[in-house]
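Problem 12. The chain below contains 173 residues. Write out its predicted structure in token notation.
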Amino acid sequence: MVKKTTSKIAFNSGEYVVYPAQGVGKVADIYKQNIGGSELELIVVNFDRDKMTLRVPLAKAGMNGLRKISDNSVMNDALEILKGKAKVKKIMWSRRAQEYENKINSGNPAAIAEVVRDLHRRENLAEQSYSERQIYEQALDRLASEYAICQNISSEEATKKLLDILAAAAPVL
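Solution.
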């Protein structure tokens, strides 16, 4: 007996989605393909920035974390997190870096906002290490790209707005 499962989320061609490990992409197509004797319905997601195409079985889309763009209330919660005080744990950088990567790859805007907030440095503070800067830029890019689609603005405008929020929240030394 073949058990057929379908995704509880309806995706449409042309809409933007978030794949946790890659960020924001656009659904290019949804089609059926015969693989190994069984027919699978696949979602084709294009990531223009990385010049990558991903094919995800529709039945496994939710399990793989593929989701629609967050609504305004979720993004507003993420922006509130950016306004908070940075919480840097006193553990080794390698462990913190791993935690930050896990938060970024979760695809959760609130978790990504925590990474951005915690790694944001003002110009007059000590220089970030290369790996710290890379993680910060990755998190900022992921958050800005989803925020841009949510607010229907350019990615550059979204990044500027996020940086303005961070600058306003940071205490002046």
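Discussion. The first strand starts at residue 16 and ends at 19. Students who got a different answer should revisit the alignment rule from Section 12.3.
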